[in-house]
């Protein structure tokens, strides 16, 4: 019956691991797709905007060229003195202006050097257009420069141009001003060309983005594999150090796993932040790492320590902190290693902290550590029942332990104890490894998710 339960438990664990791996894989793929989409959006707007600006500039130059070619008929009449026009000359210039308004110009005007209007022609019905333009009237250029300005009025694309008329010595003789209307055929051609250009760019960016997806996915898998391998190595190193400490202290390594499990579940229950849970896990595994520096006659003494020996034993917390600080990956464990012997009423060591002065992770671990010590069989004592262990913890509520944390732990302790004692030791160790590896794997892959239980 026990073997059957173990088999079912193993199947459930394998299924849970598979679901966890699938969930992480899907999360990573969604993350890559989201970033690719944002990249596609950014490139489309950026490159599309630049191309749009360049194309509009090109089309403006194109329209400007068309307008100049037509206006050359009149603006090239530089041999006339616009200040003193006789009747034949006036009629000739007026006829030329009328020819322009029959083409694409709506309004044509000639000004003399003093900027006085001399000749004017406009297409019938377009006087209002000129009046609207006049309300936004430009200034004549100071140095005889060319001027142009685009307007969109009543769905008509208009170009206002002002061309200096220069004489034989390149002296300004007057000004030609016209309102040029871009014909519908030219406008449609411009729109079609602009649309096709932007469409081609969008398709190119989309194709490039889709091409990058499998490449990024492959690179991400390689990076995740490297991160996972590094994580596995770190976890194995942490486990080896925990085993070494347990062997040195004549303890069993299963204590490290059970106490880590109890502390982890209590941290999850109170909603401890992901980063703090990682530090709690490493601290629980390596809380007594400083005992490596305690001499055997004191560490392994079967009887009660003398006051002098106890003072030496207490230095294991500072020794542990010195060891853990050597590694950036283990530095977060210092709170547990340094303060797990502090008591809520301030009677603990090494700093004599009290209440919430004691780091939260250390207060959590203190409860888990004592609970496991009471419920575990040791060479010098039998294991206590869960009921008796909880009663003992409650007697020290407010003196040794944080009352709030203890109340929460008491509510979950029986179920946690059953979970780790109803299976074989190797299964318990495998269970705890899965619990803790998920947190570190989530950090390595950037898939931090809400706390959950297998």
UniProtKB/TrEMBL annotation:
InterPro entries named in the record: Cyclic_di-GMP/3'3'-cGAMP_PDE (IPR052020), HD/PDEase_dom (IPR003607), HD_GYP_dom (IPR037522)
Keyword Nucleotidyltransferase: no
Record Pfam families: HD_5 (PF13487)
Keywords, alphabetical: Membrane, Transmembrane, Transmembrane helix
Matches recorded under Gene3D superfamilies: Hypothetical protein af1432
Gene Ontology MF terms: phosphoric diester hydrolase activity
Transmembrane segments: 32-54, 194-219
Annotated ranges, domain HD-GYP: 230-425
Keyword Transmembrane: yes
Protein's recorded name: HD domain-containing protein
Organism field: Nitrosomonas ureae
């Amino acid at each position: 019956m026990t073997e059957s339960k173990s088999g079912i438990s193993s199947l459930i664990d394998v299924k849970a691991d598979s679901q966890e791996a699938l969930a992480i894989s899907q999360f990573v793929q969604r993350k890559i797709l989201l970033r690719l989409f944002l990249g596609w959006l950014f490139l489309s707007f950026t490159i599309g905007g630049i191309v749009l600006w360049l194309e509009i500039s090109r089309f403006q130059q194109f329209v400007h060229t068309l307008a100049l070619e037509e206006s050359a008929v009149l603006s090239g009449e530089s041999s006339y003195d616009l200040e003193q026009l006789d009747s034949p000359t006036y009629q000739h210039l007026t006829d030329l202006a009328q020819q322009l308004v029959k083409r694409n110009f709506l309004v044509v005007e000639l000004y003399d050097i003093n900027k006085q209007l001399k000749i004017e022609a406009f297409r019938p019905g377009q006087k209002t257009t000129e009046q609207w333009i006049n309300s936004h009237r430009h200034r004549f250029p100071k140095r005889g420069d060319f001027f142009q300005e685009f307007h969109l009025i009543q769905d008509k694309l208009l170009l206002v141009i002002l061309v200096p008329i220069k004489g034989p010595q390149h002296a300004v003789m007057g000004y030609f001003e016209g309102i040029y209307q871009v014909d519908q055929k030219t406008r449609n051609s411009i729109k079609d060309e602009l649309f096709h250009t932007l469409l081609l760019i969008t398709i190119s960016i989309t194709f490039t983005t889709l091409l990058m997806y499998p490449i990024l996915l492959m690179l991400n898998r390689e990076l995740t594999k490297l991160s996972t391998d590094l994580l596995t190595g770190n976890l194995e190193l942490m486990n080896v150090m925990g085993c070494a400490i347990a062997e040195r202290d004549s303890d069993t390594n299963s204590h490290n796993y059970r106490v880590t499990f109890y502390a982890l579940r209590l941290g999850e229950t109170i909603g401890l932040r992901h980063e703090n849970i990682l530090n709690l896990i490493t601290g629980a595994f390596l809380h007594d790492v400083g005992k490596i520096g305690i001499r055997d006659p004191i560490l392994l003494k079967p009887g009660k320590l003398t006051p002098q020996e106890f003072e030496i034993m207490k230095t294991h917390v500072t020794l542990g902190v010195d060891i853990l600080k050597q590694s950036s990956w283990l530095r977060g464990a210092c709170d547990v290693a340094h303060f797990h012997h502090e008591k809520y009423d301030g009677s603990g060591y090494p700093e004599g902290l009290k209440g919430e002065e004691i780091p939260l992770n250390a207060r959590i671990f203190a409860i888990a550590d004592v609970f496991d010590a009471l419920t575990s069989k040791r060479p010098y004592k039998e294991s206590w029942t869960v009921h008796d262990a909880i009663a003992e913890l409650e007697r020290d509520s407010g003196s040794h332990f944080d009352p709030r944390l203890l109340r929460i732990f008491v509510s979950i302790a029986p179920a946690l104890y059953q979970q780790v004692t109803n299976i074989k030791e190797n299964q318990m160790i495998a269970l705890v490894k899965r619990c803790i590896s998920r947190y570190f794997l989530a950090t390595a892959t950037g898939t931090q998710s809400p706390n959950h239980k297998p």
